[in-house]
Amino acid sequence: MANALNPILLSAHNPSPMTGAGNNTYLLVAEDGSATLIDAGVGAPQHLADLASALDARHARLDSVLVTHGHRDHASGAPAVAGAHAAAVFAKRPWAKEDAQYGVRWRAIDEGDAVAAGGESLIVLHTPGHSPDHLAFWHEPSRTIFTGDLVVEGSSVMIHTSGGGNLVEYLASLERLLALDPRVLLPAHGPTIDDPARTLTGYLRHRLMRERQVVDALCAGHHSVQAITESIYHGLAPALVRAAQENVRAHLEKLKAEGLATTTIDEAGEWRLS
Hints:
alpha/beta; Metallo-beta-lactamase, Chain A; Arc Repressor Mutant, subunit A; five-stranded mixed beta sheet; 8 helices; 33% helix; 22% strand
C-alpha cells in the first residue's frame, strides 16, 4: 500500500514567500521505537515541540535525521534538533560549502545507499539540479518517494544557478523520478502528490515552455537577465523577483551548455543566441 510507511507530517513552522506555508518534515517510527526524521527544519520552537510530542506519544526515540539537501530551510534546524536529541545521527550527501555552517557532525550518504527509517529501508537517490547535494529517498515496496525540493504541487521550484543549481541536472532528476513510476511523492513543501506522473510531466512541460519564452525574449532584443525576467514575468511580487531571475539564469546556462546561447564576461552580462 502507498501508505505503508505511515509517515507523520510535522510542519517546520517557517512560512514565507519562498517556503509557502512552511517546510514539511516527516517522522517515521518503527515498532521498536526507533525513529527517523526527514529534513531538520529551521529550529522553530513549535517544530521541536511537535517532534517531542510525536515521539512521546509513540514511546519512541529519535535515532537519525536524513536531510535532503543543505539549504537553510532544510538543514539549519539540525543544531536545535541535536540539542534536544543528543543520540540522533545526522546524514546527508556532503556539500562542503554549506555543511560546516550547521555545527553538527554529518554522516555521508550517497546514491544507492540503503538507510533504515521507520523499520523500513529507503534507497538514497542523488537527484541534483535544485542543489548539487540534493537527495530523494525511495521506498520501493510502496513506491513512495520523499522528494525534498524537486517538486511542489501547484508551484514551481527555483533553480539557484549562482548557488549551485543546474537546470540540465534538474530535468534529468525529474525524468529519473518519472521512470521509477512512483505512486506517491512526499515533498518538502505543499501537499502530498498522489498523481506523480501528472505532476512530473507537468513540470517538464513547464520548463520547456519557459525555455521557449527565454529564447523568444532573446530574439526580441532582451539581452540581460533582468530584461528577460521582466519580459516573461508580469506582475510578479517583489519578494519573488530574485527567484525568477535565478530561474531565467538557469535556462540561459542550459542554452549555453547546449551551444545555443553565449554571454559576455563583462559586468553587463549580455546574452545572445548562438
